[in-house]
Design a protein that fits this description.
This protein is α/β, with parallel strands linked by helices and 293 residues long. Helix content is 38%, strand content 22%. The strands form three sheets. The protein has a six-stranded parallel sheet, with helices on both faces. It has a three-stranded antiparallel sheet with strand order 9-10-11, covered by helices on one side. Strand 3, helix 3 and strand 4 form a beta-alpha-beta unit.
Length: 293
């Protein structure tokens, strides 16, 4: 496995890979590091679709708000590379901020001035759900993903379903910019109690980890009620939010949406997704379940 820091080295390595294998397909798994079993599952999916798997590790300042955890976001490159070697990744791409944003200038330990004057403006759906409390977040996500696509030029890119809104926006990015990239979605990998695996789970105490299973339970209850014919979507959502709040959570949203458009669910939608975001202590957790009625 090669660990590469620059775009020039990356493109040379990919060229060498292409020469060694006929009709090489390249799969990209974008990450911010601090890898867990969910990330490794995405690498395994990538290996099923391509001969060369590139995993990027880059903590993207452009998608963090001023009061978010950019400075404290876990950076565990050595451990990540050990996991990726065991998983069979071919290339780990770990660019510096300066490599990704050539005009960067550092302001302070908590933030940087990226001087990135050209960014992706995401559609209105990016201002709902997680975007409502994280203004500009998905513009930052879409911009870094497009940059990585241009750097790696993959045939396939693999993203997890845990951030369903992000997955939707990236699919829209690929479609609207006519990118020749297949987006493959990986199912959410969970702890034994149902908690969706996340790098931020490391912030939770053991007691909070046990409590964190409640979010998934609330979402599954909504799914069960709808699949048994309940059509009072508003009451189901309100009940779930109330349950979380009564158990010490600070709910951002619980929402039922079309899985195809992310528009609010109607009586006619058959492919649905129920999504939630809430803080447990100081840790913001997200989860979702997509399903058929």
């Amino acid at each position: 496995m090669q660990v590469i820091q620059t775009v020039t080295e990356l493109r040379a390595a990919l060229k060498n890979q292409a020469q060694g294998i006929n009709q090489t397909k390249v799969a990209l798994v974008p990450t911010m590091g601090n890898l867990h079993a969910g990330h490794i599952h995405l690498v395994e999916i990538a290996k099923q679709h391509a001969q060369c798997v590139v995993v990027s590790i880059f903590v993207n300042p452009l998608q963090f708000g001023p009061n978010e955890d950019l400075a404290n976001y876990p950076r565990t490159l050595e451990a990540d590379c050990e996991k990726l070697t065991a998983a069979g990744a071919d290339i780990v791409f770990t660019p510096s901020v300066n490599e990704v944003y050539p005009d960067v200038s550092y302001l302070n330990p908590d933030g940087v001035n990226l001087n990135q004057t050209m960014t992706i403006t995401t559609p209105p759906i990016a201002n709902e759900l997680c975007g409502a409390s994280r203004p500009g977040h998905f513009d930052g996500v879409a911009t870094i993903v497009l940059k990585l696509f241009n750097m790696v030029m993959p045939n396939i890119a693999v993203f997890g379903k845990k951030d369903f809104q992000q997955l939707f926006i990236i699919r829209e990015l690929v479609k609207q910019f006519n990118l020749p990239i297949e987006i493959v979605a990986g199912e959410t990998v969970r702890e034994a109690n149902g908690l969706a695996m996340s790098s931020r789970n490391g912030y939770l105490t053991p007691a909070q980890k046990n409590e964190a299973a409640l979010m998934q339970q609330c979402l599954k209850h909504i799914v069960s009620r709808i699949q048994h014919g309940d059509t009072d979507f508003a009451a189901l959502i309100q009940s779930a939010a109330q349950t979380l709040n009564e158990n010490g959570w600070l709910v951002d949203y619980v929402s039922l949406r079309s899985a195809l458009t992310l528009a609010p669910a109607t009586a006619h939608d058959q492919q649905l997704v129920v999504l939630a975001a809430a803080k447990l202590g100081n840790t913001r957790l997200i989860d979702n379940v997509d399903f058929l009625r």
